[in-house]
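Risk register update: the risk of archive-format incompatibility is retired. Evidence:
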Amino acid sequence: MLRSLRARNVALMAGMLLLGQLLTMVMVAAFVIAPQADRIASILGRHVRTVGATLNALPTTERAAFIARVNSSDTFLIIRGGGEPPGADGRPTWLETRVLRSLATDLGQSENMVWRGGGGQPLWVWLRLGNGDPYWVSLAPSPGWTPTGALLGAVAIGLTLSLIAGLLLQRRINRPLKALADAVDAMPDPHSVAHLVDEAPAEIATVATSFERMTARLRAQEADRAFMLAGISHDLKTPIAKLRLAAALRETGDADDAMIARQFDRIGRMLDQFLDFGRGMDAEQPQRINVWQAVSEVALSAGLSSDCMQGDPSVLASVRPVALERAIANLFRNAIIHGHPPISIVVRKEVGRAIVEVVDSGDGVDPTLLHQLDNPFFRGDAARPSDGGVGLGLAIASRFAREHGGMLRFENIETGGFRVELAISAA
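Archived output:
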């Protein structure tokens, strides 16, 4: 089955063109070639009758000389019919067959016409001329292409040119469609498709315009949602800070005070994640930075030793620095809380991408949950102990990777441990 639009259009174009060419061939054969074949047979019949009448009128001693003069023209050949003529292994073409049938009708020999050769060889017809002596008579083939061959060649050339034109046309249509598909894949922050309005066909330009309007609405909704989330998280920090201060001033030193402090810390971490997730990245401009240096600074802030850093210290990338710090900090926090030491960090570059790997020595994650780990608010509590987070850390890191032309990948290590790979475009 032809599933792509290109394959279907090309197949339809080729089928319709081939059908049109076949109809053209039938019409040319019926109304052009067939009348010409009848005309050639009529001319050949007149030549045969003229030669026969001449041979009948000449004395026997002069007939050989007359046949030699006829054969000197290299167009009309006559030889004695006692054996097989030269080139008798050929087969007549459709046009030659039509000429032979017309000739048989013209000479009144429809029942007993005998011929040999044809195709690329001379076509010989066995006749009795003069006083009834048997002869092989031939009309030498014309040099170059036969009419049938020329017609088939024209059909092949026309079909080839049409298919090339169809492919070029489909390519012109597919290019804006591919750009539109890429923009859809890049949502909710797609690349601009404004150029399609000017460059693409009118139908695709209309779709691109509608897509831009839809994207604008979605981005506005996303901005409102992020603003609301950030606002709520920010506003909650003030009363929580006051409650924490009030709890600290009590100074009773009992277990309830310690539990209250832990809960306030937990709420603070949750609000920090909400703020990070709600901020987005649009306000920060990308900068060319040293990835190794940025990652090592975040590692030290997270309490990790510089000895855990491995890889290439010269890796560079154009990123939003604060967004990178938030993404890497979430990866480190995930490894520290949910994994076990030792934790190793690898910074490397491959095929235009900067790679940051964070590997812990924990028990890993249930393989059926790997594809959900970067979903917002998802927590793999069944596989790992919970710290009371809201499940936004890996979602923040994943969104950072997508915004920078990369991806976040998770993998259980067979020998034990868990690997998170953050890949971003180095450009």
